[in-house]
Amino acid sequence: MDIFELILLCALAAVFYVCALLLCGGRISLIHSYQRKNVSEENAGAYAKLYALVMFFVGSGLLAAGAINYITHAAWGFIALGVCFVAAIAIAITAQLKYNVAK
């Protein structure tokens, strides 16, 4: 892995971290309207915080993948990305099942 790929993965991680911070601040509009269509107003903050956690896990996976791949000069870091991505999907499914229920 060369330095360009490391910088690219770090930049993508930064984008996900910024989205996580914005979601923690209550910007639920970052989530697609279909994903949040049945979320009540009182649950919107908790729903956004769970999705912020999703963004944090994906960003952390990208950062870990970049660092591990740069250090090892192999693709071992993408295992860390996969683990973080699976955790993020599990959290997103949990958020959908808990807060986005049809009335």
Short description:
This protein is mainly alpha-helical and 103 residues long.
What does this structure look like?
The protein is mostly helical. Helix 1 runs antiparallel to helix 2 and helix 2 packs antiparallel against helix 3. It starts with a helix and ends with a helix. It contains 3 helices and no strands. The longest helix is centred in the middle third of the chain and has 29 residues, at 44-72.
Annotate the secondary structure layout:
Elements: H1 3-24, H2 44-72, H3 77-99
Share in β-strands: under 5%
Number of strands: 0
The parts where pLDDT drops under 50 for at least 5 residues are: none
Q: Given the structure, what is the number of helices?
A: 3
N-to-C terminal Cα separation, in Å?
A: 50 Å
